[in-house]
Amino acid sequence: MRLRPSSLKTSFARYVTPSPQSTATMPTCGPCKASFLHFRPFPVTIFTAFLYLALFIPLLIIHYVPPAPPPNASLKESIGVDLEDSWRTLAAITKKYHPYNSRANDHVKSFLVDKINQIIEKNGNNKTEVIEDTYVNVLYTGRASVKIYFESLNVIVKVQGSGGFEGVIGDVLVNAHYDSVSTAPGATDDGVAVVTVLGLIDYFTQPQNTPRRDMYFLLNNGEEDYLNGAMAFTEHPLAKNCRIFLNLEGAGAGGRATLFRSTDAEVTKFFKRAKYPFGSSLSGDAFKKGFIRSQTDYIIFDGELGMRGLDLAFWHPRARYHTQWDSMAFTSINSLWHMFETSLSSLVGMAQDGSYTFIEGSGRKHTGVWFDMFGRGFAIFDIADTFIWSMCLLTITPFFIFGLFYLLAKADKLYLLASSPKSNGPLPPKLELAGCKGFWRPFVAILFSTSAVVSTALLIAKANPMIMYSSQEAVWVCLISSWIITSWFSLKVANWWRPSATARTWSIGWISFIAWILLVFNAVAEDRLDVGGMYFTIFYYMATALALVFSLFDLFFLPPTSHIYDSISHVDPFEDDDRRSLIAPSVDQTNTLSPDEEEPETPNEHTSLLRDSSNLGRGRHIGRRPNSHGSLSIGAASSLPTIENNEDDEPSCSSSTLCASRQYPGEQYWSRYALRYSWILQAIVLIPVPVIITAQIAFIVGTSIAQTGADGNNPVTGYILYSILTVLVLLPLQPFLHRWTRHVPIFLFFVFAGTFLYLLLAFPFSWNNPLKVYFAQTVDLKTGENKVHLVGVSKYIKNIVEENIPSAWAPGADLQCQDDPLRLGLQRCSWPGKMPNVVPGSEWKKWASVNATYLDEKAGLNRAKIEVRAQNTRACRVNFDQATAKWVKSVDIFDPTGKGKTVKHKNEKKDAAGFVQQIRLWSRDWERGWDVVVQYEKPKGAEGGPVGFVECLWSDANNGAIKALEEVKSFLPQWAVVSKLEDGLVIGEIPFAIEEPKKI
């Protein structure tokens, strides 16, 4: 049947009413240039890109640059402390390496005692007491089957407070260690902390700054050797008075001092007083769960004494840590000022606190969740509060969002789930709204971009795993570029194929859902593991949920879906110019075709009721097929083409009102009624908070793990963390990426290509970020055989030795490289080296001696004495071989001069191993030695007593006596640096066996 145009005109008359403006010719316009703040490519690109830069730049500056101190004259006037004098003091104590087992250590101790006395005399404080602890000896269990004997050389300064309390409330302890490792001057580990303590003593001994609580300033000696100095303090009578502590440490070589960890939220609140706070509770959780294996004196005060306090430390760069470059040349007075200012601010709060919160047995102790805000503010919460907060967000927020969906559905404005509205007439039955279009594209884009980032990171880890050691910034740039390029391309293709006005809302919804999942993990960690390091998920979800709420509020400003068809301004389709669209009007609503575009043939029964799409307009969607149900679409998913301008064609419009009512090219017709500026509010809500919180964590984590590969850690773990944090930082950008112009992604493509090639091919070390290798030398004091050992990353250590160390080239050097038993993941290369001269004027046979004698049998246990004597050292070790070590049940150590006796640690617990395999011996006096009495129980049928060997240690590298070390330092390539492998640089070995008397 042939439907005549006249009948069509009659049947449409009551449903299609000409608009009053349809008779006038109106200008055609695309997206208006004048509407700068509309959701258009140029303003979206500029606004979001600059928003990220405005957040990243300050975070990077805060991360890397410590604050500058006020003028020194101003400091002397305001707080009475001379910062420049502290800097000069740092120079004095870092002239030489000064480990516990060195003569330089004694000189540093004497210098510090004299300096303290000068400060007290200057301030005229006769109530301050200086105590040199030379009488506490402690014997305690280290790790399983290891006993440690240590004699204290600590310095304690007691500053008497004004008091006035009813009962005992506890005193304040400030701790730093004045020993360094044997291969470093110790400027930041722990020299800056030591001079900070001197400055604090200076402040609190001034009459106008008298503290309310008594304060103890502990300069302990022996931290680098198993935290021995702090452990010795636990046996000092004054230790029982202390309830609050501040530990000052250095695990890097400069920068800002960060709050490593704290015992609880209540004591962490004192840190809030600092003008430049810096840190995140994530680092404390990493210590708590064993992800960071190194330790500080914090664990002694917390674990052994049950005190409550803070651990403040330098933390990067790790490449200089424990090396000769931990010197004043690589730190600054700014770093000194930052540690001093944060310490002083916290201690003023502690010292003047009059509460009974910190008395022993007080129940007011809660795990803290804390972080700084741009290095100027500090947030602190109880983990119980954050858990309640998390649960409320997890439950209430989704109900609120579902409530908004319900209200939108009741108001007939739920465009997100609407496909087409109902109409009152028989034709057309439906009009497509395509609200669900765009639902899956954010998820697919996140999947693709995340896969691209992870694949890029793993490829770098496979080809050049150590490159993050020196180029972590390049890794960040490469991964960020990869994510943006992939995500932008995925969204742009989807938007070109099926444009949708709901793309931004669906993207925000997906990000909010991902944040909700992360918040679930955070709630579980808070409840089950008592860790709050995922605190960022709380703020992340709050921001994304709020942005989603604002996106849903946008829909309330739209007309009901049932009114969309009636709101379209129609024209009579059978006026003289019948070349208009029959049913689907153009988005211009007034466009006409030129006369030369007439139909080439007369319509017949085979002619479609709808005009040939080949002659309709200049839009991107020319030639689209009708949808499956035969409905007529408006916009992006239209089954008919619309007459619209290309999105790149933005002419100036004569009518700003008309331009303001335009929808974006190709998107649904109803989007012209949406708010034009709401995207700015959504961006401001969605981007800053998640980026600030997450980027801060990313920088801290990234810097912390970048150089741990030299310690034997698997670099792949670092790259995975980099990838995860990259995605989290950039996710808030995704709802706006489909509107970005191509210019930034093209630029980032070249950035990605350049950084990716660099990361694959560049050498991973430099003089500024040198590879750390570990030195030790063993000497057999029976045969004179010596071996030099250098331990490092297996890919490089053998070449370093073969190509750079002359003694390894010598004929018969017999270089051997194998996996190191002490540092897992690294390789040890050993070769005969130059004999050291650690005991001047004495041949190597007389450096040390050991005499093992059987004593008697008591209560079924045999007793034997091992006499250890050594020259020019105050450190030795007694080792039992693996078989006979299980016989040894207990140990006592005596001073051979008869002046002292072993004091067993008061909190000593029975060794879980049930035997003793190694005894570490430390003496405050030189060349005195030890008498070790052991009790052992032999199995039936065993003959003889325990056997083993004694190792005596020499750690003084200041006088050039360790020639092999000097050779390594001289001939290492400029991109490598040496550190110590063990307690001693030179280890002399002597075997022993306990001979039992023959039974008659």
Automatic annotation (TrEMBL):
Top-level lineage group: Eukaryota
Keywords: Glycoprotein, Hydrolase, Membrane, Metal-binding, Metalloprotease, Protease, Transmembrane, Transmembrane helix, Vacuole, Zinc
Main location, first listed in the record: membrane
Transmembrane listed as a keyword: yes
UniProt function note: May be involved in vacuolar sorting and osmoregulation.
Record family assignment: Belongs to the peptidase M28 family.
Name the UniProt record assigns to this protein: Peptide hydrolase
Source species taxonomy: Eukaryota, Fungi, Dikarya, Ascomycota, Pezizomycotina
